[in-house]
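TASK: fixed-backbone design
INPUT:
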């Protein structure tokens, strides 16, 4: 998930009937890996 140019991790639990989103965790590592423009 990306909000205002920052990546967040969203762990979840999946069952047959629904998907439960546990929490939202800001992630510098995911931001660097997924949103970098190649300059670092």
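OUTPUT:
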């Amino acid at each position: 998930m990306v909000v205002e140019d920052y990546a967040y991790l969203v762990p979840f639990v999946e069952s047959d009937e629904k998907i439960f989103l546990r929490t939202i965790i800001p992630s510098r590592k995911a931001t660097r890996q997924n949103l970098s423009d190649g300059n670092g």
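COMMENT: The longest helix spans residues 28-35.
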